[in-house]
Task: structure prediction
Amino acid sequence: MPDHITQPNQTTNYHAYLLRLWREEGGDWRVSLQSTRTGERFGFADLQTAVQFIAQTLRQGESQ
Result:
């Protein structure tokens, strides 16, 4: 029997993002997160800002 993951009915209880990291000319790293549910892409100048975005998203889900 294959293993599978079932997603909760409420979208605020499950978040999945595709994380992309790349280095710009000049050495600065850039980050993007793409929602696997909606396909929406979010761009960030650094990893810390991306993590802050995720934390904020989770806090918003808790308040709903």
Notes: Helices lie at 47-63. The chain has one domain: 15-63. The mean pLDDT is 84.
